[in-house]
Amino acid sequence: MVNISAMLAGLIFGLGLILAGMADPAKVLAFLDITGAWDPSLALVMVGAIAVGSVAFAVASRRNRSYLGLPIHLPTARVIDKRLMLGSLAFGIGWGMAGICPGPALVLLGAGSSKGIVFVAAMLLGMGIFEILERSRLVDRPKMGGHI
Amino acid sequence: MLIDWSHFTPWSSLAGGMTIGIAVAVFALLNGRIAGISGIAGGLFRLQTGDIGWRIAFVAGLVAAPLVWQLFHSLPTFQIDTGYGILALAGLIVGIGTRYGSGCTSGHGVCGLSRLSPRSIIATLVFMGTGFVTVYIMRHMLGG
């Protein structure tokens, strides 16, 4: 049941991206090109998504368990640190280079776009590199503590 | 600022956004989680037992979306003018950046703003800002 609802959520998400125009990288770039011929459509994607999403989270945050009886995992981090800033800064650069962010990338993969496949492969490689760096960071930490 | 009215699609974009909102609601209220694509996909590399199935299911649903769409309607054009080299570099940067920044357009932009999370508001302003600047540099300074 948990996996079925997750698949359903992913499917609805993807259909929404296609309907919204977010899966078309040229349209995303036209939105990011504010000094050129600007297409503001994608601002309305955010408006629509947040209008519905805010109601969902207002309900979810008042509950201990989901309607399937699962614990509600909402982020608790509050610190605005260097990782958040630099990571988001880098993400914006990559997004601006191709007009593709992770959700639309996976939709393009499903659509069989060869460029989408290349983007997803590179994106997964990046995520894998992050995990390797994270693991070595977590292993190094006690060692460094020993030196100090 | 010059608005390109000929490509402006307010209704389908608003409806698509609300559909994304419904997906976020389904995932939050049934699975109790944030529908952040980079977190869901990136977490696959952690290989923690009991944590893999729903991630694969969500990603599979997302990848299947264009196939399901085609059962009812022909797909709209997905135009990618960027060359393969730049695309690969962009994908790599997006992969690393979203994981370090703990989220992307969905996790921070949609879910985080819906929750009024200060971290997500900052993250969204930062990646939108660098997105605007990058497109400006590539299109209007480098002429790509």
Description:
- The complex is a heterodimer of chains A (148) and B (144).
- By secondary structure, chain A is mostly helical.
- Chain A is built from 6 helices and 1 strand.
- In chain B, α5 crosses α6.
- Chain B is globular.
- By secondary structure, chain B is mainly α.
- The mean pLDDT of chain B is 94.
- At the A-B interface, α1, α2, β1, α3 and α4 of A face β1, α1, α2, α3 and α4 of B.
Key traits:
heterodimer, A: 148 residues, 1% strand, B: 144 residues, mainly alpha, 69% helix, globular
Strand element count of chain A: 1
Structurally, the number of domains of chain A stands at: 1
Proportion of residues in extended strands of chain A: under 5%
Poorly predicted segments of chain A? 143-148
- The class by helix and strand makeup of chain B works out as mainly alpha
Q: What does the overall shape of chain A look like?
A: globular
Helix proportion range of chain B: 55-70%
Q: What is the average per-residue confidence, as pLDDT of chain A, rounded to a whole number?
A: 92
Order of helices and strands of chain B: EHHHHHH
**CA(first)-CA(last) distance of chain B:** 20 Å
Number of strands of chain B: 1
CA-atom Rg of chain B in angstroms = 17 Å
Structural class of chain A: mainly alpha
Largest sheet of chain A: none
Q: How many strands, what sense, and barrel or not for the largest sheet of chain B?
A: none
Rg of chain A (CA only): 19 Å
